[in-house]
């Protein structure tokens, strides 16, 4: 699925993902490729993204994107927001 994580200041991430784990207001939930359409409010927490390919940071990469020992998984700390999944495209509007 195509994923975009956007804050009021900038586009934090744009790319292809296999799965996205989100901090919903009623608890964590995961969205996979070809998920049914959904809109959900988000609370403070980490958005964890399982990527199709290794993440390679460059000079345009946001400092909000964190990587660990596995370069196919990134995390972005958010303070809240909204997530929408429609036509295999997920947009996370985050604070």
Description of the structure:
With 95 residues, the protein is mostly beta strands. The chain has a single domain (2-94), classed as Sandwich (ATP Synthase, domain 1). The chain is 0% helix and 65% strand. It is built from no helices and seven strands. The chain has strands at residues 2-6, 11-24, 27-32, 38-51, 65-67, 73-86, 89-94. A five-stranded mixed β-barrel has the order 1-2-4-6-7. It is globular and about 35 Å long.
Give me some keywords for this one:
ATP Synthase, domain 1; 5-stranded mixed barrel; 95 residues
Structure described in brief:
With 95 residues, this protein is an all-beta fold. The protein is built from no helices and seven strands. It has strands spanning 2-6, 11-24, 27-32, 38-51, 65-67, 73-86, 89-94.
Task: Describe the SSE topology.
Layout: E1 2-6, E2 11-24, E3 27-32, E4 38-51, E5 65-67, E6 73-86, E7 89-94
Parallel strand pairs: 1-7
Antiparallel strand pairs: 1-2, 2-3, 2-4, 4-6, 5-6, 6-7
């Amino acid at each position: 699925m195509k994923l975009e994580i956007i804050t009021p200041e900038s586009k934090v991430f744009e790319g292809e993902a296999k799965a996205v784990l989100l901090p919903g207001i009623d608890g964590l939930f995961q969205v996979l490729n070809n998920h049914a359409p959904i809109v959900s409010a988000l609370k403070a927490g980490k958005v964890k993204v399982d990527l199709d390919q290794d993440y390679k940071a460059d000079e345009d990469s946001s400092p909000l994107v964190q990587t660990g020992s596995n370069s196919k998984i990134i995390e972005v700390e958010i303070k809240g927001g909204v997530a929408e999944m429609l036509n295999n495209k997920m947009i996370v509007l985050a604070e």
